[in-house]
Design a protein that fits this description.
Blueprint: E1 5-9, H1 16-31, E2 38-42, H2 43-46, H3 53-69, E3 78-81, H4 87-96, H5 101-105, H6 108-115, H7 122-125, H8 127-136, E4 142-145, H9 150-167, E5 175-178, H10 207-215, H11 234-242, H12 245-257, H13 262-276, H14 278-288, H15 291-320, H16 327-330
Parallel strand pairs: 1-2, 2-3, 4-5
Bound molecules: adenosine-5'-diphosphate and tryptophan.
Tryptophan binds next to β1, α8 and β4.
Length: 331
């Protein structure tokens, strides 16, 4: 029996890369286990980049609606918002006191993110400690994440090991599950599709907007008649992950034989996105227009998560010495 846990930051509205690269594979892994998975929206982590309350709330609902539209069953799994379980912040403090400063200072993700910023916050610096707390609080076995998160998982294991050595065994050492087979999808400008580059496609959102963005995909300047290279084309790469296999083969042949223009390929990609996600789009719109229903689901999830969080946290408190040694006698 393995407990799966993963989180998605609500630093923006989810996009095609998040859906195919993180949300759908996590649901698939969760469904294979006999015990409930812990799936959450990392809104506290998103605070390292978002300074506007309304934006954070809206993004959090958008991420929640996306998980549900993608098929997450909130009755079967524990689906919650990170900030609704404040215990995670307390655990992060205890873990932070055992985390060597150089381990955080040398983390790739911190160096990469802080390199672009005029002001670097302590929150960004301690980001991996909060992530370790997310994972360790629920005695997680498996953490499905993108390869970019590998070092954060190693840091989590190091911190758990340091705690267990210092105080005795409390934490399970989690294992990262890295999706080697999932392609890093390119965005409309050809770079990695990412919220931070503004190059995303949102197949669950407004279709006019989706059409406009598909039309803006950057290609080379080959004329219609010329044969084209499918492997180096953003339109083809995206088409190959959303269209049925025969349709993909068909497009590949058209690219190679020439007489097929990028404009036509874009139309085909748009149609494939509309088709592939039509059920999810409808479900997304239903959820996002019913915030009270979303809120009720998140609250119920938080209750379940907090019950589990308390079990770990009370052991941790005892171990570190912030709870009187006699408290168990009085409780
Ligand atoms: P962003 O780069 O848009 O801020 P995140 O870093 O919040 O996205 O992504 C959350 C998860 O979504 C990542 O760990 C990764 O697994 C997945 N993901 C993000 N972008 C892509 C992409 N372009 N292709 C495939 N998966 C992606
Ligand atoms: N850092 C992760 C990301 O950017 C999000 C995240 C926060 C997470 N806490 C987590 C992922 C715990 C897995 C487990 O994608």
């Amino acid at each position: 029996m393995s407990r799966v846990l993963t989180g998605i930051q609500s630093s923006g509205k989810p996009h095609l890369g998040n859906l195919l690269g993180a949300i759908l594979p996590a649901i698939e892994l969760a469904e294979k286990q006999s015990e409930p998975a812990y799936l959450f929206i990392a809104d506290l982590h998103a605070l390292t980049v978002i300074r506007d309350a309304e934006t954070l709330r809206e993004n959090t609902y958008a991420v929640a609606a996306t998980w549900l539209a993608a098929g997450l069953d909130p009755e079967k799994h524990v689906f919650f918002r990170q900030s609704d379980v404040p215990e995670v912040c307390e655990l992060a403090w205890y873990l932070g006191c055992l985390t060597p400063y150089p381990m955080l200072a040398n983390a790739h993700s911190f160096k990469e993110k802080s390199g672009h910023l005029a002001e670097v916050s302590a929150g960004l610096f301690t980001y991996p400690v909060l992530m370790a707390a997310d994972i360790l609080l629920y005695q997680t076995d498996l953490v499905p994440v993108g390869k970019d998160q590998k070092q954060h998982l190693e840091i989590t294991r190091d911190i758990a090991g340091a705690f267990n050595r210092a105080y005795g065994e409390v934490f399970k050492l989690p294992e990262g599950i890295y999706r080697e087979e999932v392609m890093i999808l390119p965005g409309i400008d050809g770079r990695k599709m990412s919220k931070s580059y503004g190059n995303t496609l949102d197949p669950l959102g407004d279709l006019n907007e989706l059409y406009k963005r598909v039309k803006r995909i950057v290609t080379d300047a080959k004329p219609l008649d010329a044969p084209k290279d499918p492997e180096n084309c953003t339109i083809f790469k995206l088409y190959s992950v959303v269209a049925p296999p025969e349709a993909v083969e068909n497009m590949r042949e058209r690219y190679l034989s020439g007489g097929y223009g990028y404009g036509q390929a874009k139309e085909a990609l748009y149609e494939a996105l509309v088709q592939r996600f039509s059920a999810e789009r409808e479900a997304y719109h239903r959820w996002i227009s019913d915030k009270p229903a979303l809120e009720a689901i998140l609250q119920k999830g938080a209750e379940k998560a907090r019950a589990e969080a308390h079990k770990t946290l009370s052991r941790v408190r005892q171990k570190v010495g912030v709870q009187g040694a006699l408290s168990s006698i009085f409780s």
